[in-house]
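WARN retry 2 of 3 for item q-0093 after timeout on previous attempt; input resubmitted unchanged.
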Amino acid sequence: MTYHESQVFINEGIFGVLDHGEVPIESVHWSGGLIAPMSAGAMVRTGINTGNVRVEVHTGGPMDSPGDWEEEATALVWSPTGSLRIESVVDGPRSDLPILSTSGPGWYELDIKARGRGRNPDASVLHSAESYRVALRPAPEATTPAPAGTSTLPDSDEEARRRRLLQG
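OK item q-0093 returned
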């Protein structure tokens, strides 16, 4: 098993596990605590509002649990292009962290472990004490349901409209 680590800039209390930079924010399911799945990828909620957090990406084999992780969450995420990676919503993809969806397009189980989210709630701090460990593994097709409210991906015209709206 291998770990890759980086500081990720947080704005508005989130960072993304995004596919090819797409942010289908209108499809986000905020009902969960730590992970908010979207029609492609997911958002991860942080404790701070603005600043940097430490993110570890785990690749290869099952993720071990040792450590003082305070929270854990798992969610199904869709990767239409097979390019899921950690992204700052301001700075974009973290090129120093590997692509997570190593099996190409499809459904994945996203595991997030977190600690320190309650230390500086909604604060702006240059370097937060928050840490996240992220792992992604292909979801077995036989047990992979579509997220609530999505039976297929939007058509290309709808995706183009969404991109224009998100760009301003």
